[in-house]
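Service request form, structural biology core

Requester: graduate student, group of Dr. S.
Request type: structure prediction, single chain
Budget code: on file
Notes: please return the result as structure tokens.

Sequence provided:
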Amino acid sequence: MFYKKQFLHLIMFLSITTTVNSQNKLLDSLKKQLTYKLNDTVRAKILGDLTWYHKSTSLDSSIKYGYKGIDLLKSIDNKRLLAQQFSDMGTVFLLKGEMYKSKDFYLESLKIREILNDTIGSAKILGNLAGLYQRQQKLDTAMMYSVKAMKILEEKGAKNNASRIKSNVASMYIDLKAYDKALEYLKEILEYQTSIEDNFFRANTLSNMGNVFLFKFDTLQAIKHYELAINFSNKSKNSQAKSAALSNLGNIFSAKNNSQKAISYFNQSLEIREKLNSDYDIASLKLSLGMEYLRTGNIKDAKVKFLESLPYLEENNIIDKLIPLYSNLSNLYAYEKNVEKVRFYYDKHLKLNSIYSSENQAEKIAEVETKYETAKKEAEIAQQKEQLLEQELAIKNRNLYAILLASALLILGIIFFGIFKKNQFKRNQLQKEIDLKDALATIKTQNRLQEQRLRISRDLHDNIGSQLTFIISSIDNLKFISKDANVKLKDKLSTISSFTSGTIHELRDTIWAMNKSKISVEDLHSRILSFIEKAKIAVPEMEFEILYTIDKNTSFSSLIGMNLFRVIQEAINNAIKYAEANKLEIHLKKDQQNFVISIIDNGKGFNINSVDLGNGLSNMEKRMSEIDAKVSINSKEKIGTEIKLEIALENTSNDL
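Core staff response, request fulfilled:
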């Protein structure tokens, strides 16, 4: 068995080596051809090939040959080849992480392709621009370019190119946390790529599917898909996909607090990115490495990695990376007792975090996608109308008199019906006007209420939230500074820090509820999952399971949602503290006309008639009475405890 594995490894190594040697021979052959006496068009094509093939080995070499090709094509005025060369240079600079140069080259290519009426070529450029804006987190613009490109490619039957655009759309859905929608796109893409044995792009798709499973907390499936992505990357020499999969494996082990493995995967990924001179990915990986070093207490290496990633991220305004970078730099300088820099980076973190909102981007994307779907449907309707007109023209002579007679009868019927309904219509119209005024007044009141709600939540987040965070940072500094202080003082500082952290979580839950006029079962389910993830850190040995058999779109007011969530929190905390259980189940279901939540543990249980339940049950009952709901407890010794919350569904639609 051992020799068989060794033989397989040898075959794989020889295969990879053969592929690399083959590519090197191709590049050497192209370079040698440039020494021959060739006409300018052939020479320009060779320079274009060198630009494209070098992007997998050396981005700097790609750029050198790319500029030579552009100069030559401009001199011979070959617009078609020049458009392709601009496009290839845009891709090279995108891989290098120089976004602005990449955008300029793509736009130059698009301008020429539109002049040449190259529809498919223009669509490809739109797809490339979408990928560029996606990297800059400008998701509304990215989606706009993507849907334009997909529409053109689908109309032209260019399935392969349309599939690649769909891959970008799927990754945007991942950014928006619409994981089921992203998975739906990716499965469709993978099926197509498998049918044509496109191993290069199959590696990208498998890596993206790994991302989705990771966000859905299915770590085993995520690791499986990342390993498949690495396998297909090795077969097709897709260095980009391999580096992405290695980086994502590093993220998984980082989440598992296994910094040693995380650092190993991040360094493997960084080695590939540095060979490609991919500045964006290099900066991102150095940020990740810095965070791992900081977690393990390696302050020196953490500081080096953070400061190496900082210039590129600030120059290109990569907001989603700068937010955690500023936060970690603030923490790092807190270790070094550099108060001035702590405050400097902490203020930068707060300012950037306050203006960054993915919700607005999600709304814009939804609007763009809706416009795309509407335009698509309108085109289908227009096509159907044309077919109907052709059919009508074909039978026009036979049915002309019948149509005229039917039209006359219809007109007479409408006239008599109109006279009959005239008075009734006036009454209905008057009633509608009254109803409309009432509705407008109600909407105006609700809008004012929502504005007040949002203003208060912003004030809570920006003022109290930031102050509490600063208190925690200050306490941590005090703990570090007062390392020689007595144990009692340290315990007191730890207690204050824990209490403040808990207060922040409570504040975030309150803001979550205040930002919504209605809360759906899906929102409640997501919030419970988030709380359970925190609970797993405290009790890793306990198994949690959450199920729901009720329509996820069922909604209720924010007051009801917040009270239900608080009682569920209280029940989970009680099970963790007192039940000595190893499994906790949470069921969300519909029982007749009631919404029922059950929290069940398999702990030691208790005799409900002989135990003083204390303030916990009293708080639960008080919260439930506020929303016309009830709470009941059923416990048996050595079997476990069930806490059941019930609220009538007819009460869940009331607003605050």
